[in-house]
Design goal:
Length: about 220
């Protein structure tokens, strides 16, 4: 009963609270996802940083904006990405409302039964990030601000092609617009370490190529 009551109060706060802004106008919360690469080598580690900022209607940064928080979802295809464990140092902890005793971001199935928000039939998992602070005191930091970093290991033996990691908002803290773009990645052909002739296998021919290269 206590947990249900907490969820009701949290939903009310983050969805209906009025942002505290001296501008008195519509502001936009922006999340920029910054990957270390948009071309994915199979088997490598992909790192993505999320930068939070707030802009007015003239696209001017509001460095000292305060609100009740924000809720975000990161959608991905688990047949291509293995999520590396998220730790407390990987996200901005002030006001973070996570899952379990460790208060970590929740990872759940991304399907129609749970209200699939990104309209992408290829994504099947999502990571939930939510920050809530009473009284319009979030994030209490100068903007822009890095609010989380996530890492994935790219699976191997995938067909070359494209895949997305999508971003949606679950709430903006009341009265704000939201801006954020999905990431589109290119998956490069699988190439085992030591495959010098690009035939997707390592054999004696590759050994001879290496010996010749070292001899030169």
């Amino acid at each position: 009963m206590k947990n249900i009551f907490l969820k009701i109060i949290t939903t009310f706060i983050i969805c209906y609270a009025i942002p505290c802004s001296s501008q008195g106008s519509t502001l936009t919360k922006k999340i920029e996802l910054i990957p270390d690469s948009l071309e994915l080598t199979q088997g490598r580690i992909l790192s993505i940083r999320a930068i939070y900022s707030v802009y007015d209607e003239n696209d001017q940064l509001i460095e000292d904006d305060l609100s009740t928080g924000i809720g975000l979802r990161i959608h991905f295809d688990s047949s291509k990405f293995d999520l590396i464990e998220i730790k407390n140092e990987d996200f901005f902890e002030y006001g973070f409302l996570g899952d379990g005793e460790l208060n970590l971001p929740k990872v759940e199935e991304d399907n129609d039964e749970l209200d699939k928000n990104d309209d992408d039939e290829n994504t099947d998992k999502r990571i939930l990030f939510q920050w809530v602070v009473l009284g319009n005191y979030w994030p209490f930091q100068t903007l822009p601000l890095e609010i989380f970093k996530i890492r994935f290991k790219i699976k191997t033996k995938l067909e070359p092609g494209e895949t997305n990691i999508n971003l949606t908002d679950s709430s903006t803290g009341g009265g704000y617009l939201f801006s954020g773009e999905d990431l589109k990645f290119s998956i490069l052909p699988f190439k085992p370490i030591g495959d010098f002739n690009n035939d997707e296998k390592v054999d004696n021919i590759d050994t001879l190529i290496l010996i010749k290269h070292l001899a030169d």
